[in-house]
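# nightly structure sweep
# worker-07 picked up a monomer target from the shared queue
# config: single-sequence mode, recycle default, output format = structure tokens
# input follows
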Amino acid sequence: MSFLAAVWHSGILGHQPIQGALGLAWTVLRHGPTLYALAAWNAHRTPDAVALVDENGPLTYRALLRRADGKAAGLSRHIKPGEAVGLLCGNSADFVAALLASLQIGARTVLLNTSLSVAEIGRIGQQQRLGLLVCDGDWPQRLRGHLGSETVLIHVTQVCTAQRMALAPRLPRVGQLVLLTSGSTGMPRAIRSRVGLRAGWRVAGALLEILPLRAGAPTLLPLPLFHGHGLAALGMGLALGAPLHLCRPTTEALWRTLQTEGIKVLVVVPTLLHRLLAAPGRRAAPALHAVICGSAPLSAGLATATLERFGEVLFNVYGSTETGLISLATPADLRAAPGSVGRVLPGVEFELQGGEGRVIVGGHDTGDLASLDPDGRLTLHGRADELLICGGENVLPSSLEGRIAAHEAVAECAVVGVPCAEFGTGLHAFVVLRHGHQRTPEQLQTELSPLLPRTFRPQRITLLETLPRSPTGKLLRSQLLREAMMDMSATDLKPPL
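# output follows
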């Protein structure tokens, strides 16, 4: 199916597809190929349709565009096209309006992670030469004195004006969007997408063809909009003219919204999916057509449990901030190969390089290790920079973690490598126990010993309530490594049992 055919089939163009297509083309010519253009297109054809729902209630496309235009006029007082604006906000209609506004005035928009420290934000502000930082909550008070004199600090609710922007005829000033890497392996880095327009169209067409996405389908998004996964869901919602529910990522809030708002599309990370399934009582969400999971590895066990609970609605996506989407696993893929990330999407320039299987996309080394099965399904095996050599043996933490997690008492675990006199690198496992199970680290070591080769057995086990994760559910392995290094030294480590 071609891109145009997929768009037609999805219902995006409405009951009069030709008029809808012409209207979209005119809007893009006027405003550029941005999220603002999608919002403006919907505001013109369905002004009273709900665009967003946050904790303050629903907001129509007409109201969203009016708010975005007001903020654009406010931003223009401080920023010229091409200058940098930082957005440091949680999910809200005000954040979306500020994002649309920044893109509309042609600013270079830097999306900042709200879990960053004040010092990290200060460093990024200097690196990106932010002329304006828009934030919410108590960030204005916390950041005072930590930003350069060239950066104006303003609360997101104060970026407005009673006057809408003058829409005089002009060439569109397309703003640039800058995202940060997750920082799971160190200081977050600002990156720009490597996805070309033609390849992007092919990927978008494939998604519309494979995913059961239809115009107007209520969508639930508990993921942060400053991350690529959440941002893609926002773009998807605006393109489909779908009401996007910006829900807090708590189990109760998710289940309440799923059951009361007729949610058809749920966008999650594995951590949230696990919490949904673990909630007391066997709750149902009969309206669900698609559960789109990504941003972190989806275990085979969780994939199977989700399919059993919700039916054939689970899709697992794999990609990165730098490369965009790479592959997609359908429910059929996950039934056949629960641990896979499916097949590489059309338009993605993909190759596996070297004997270890490094994932290369568009010439960019993602740092991931993977393999392809005979049916073309891709399975990830961890990060190349996480590969450990223990006693001359290659150990992938993700593979070992899966074997440890198979123990009846283990809910999840993470493994890091530390210096070891005997093996060069020793293994330190951080384990979260299942509810109702009790074990000491020594008991776990004893029970795991018969199940693992000698060089694969962790020399030390630390029990945790939860594993440290980013807001998108990505394991913060570097944080665990720091803890492990503080907890032991090479001379502390004992040979495995």
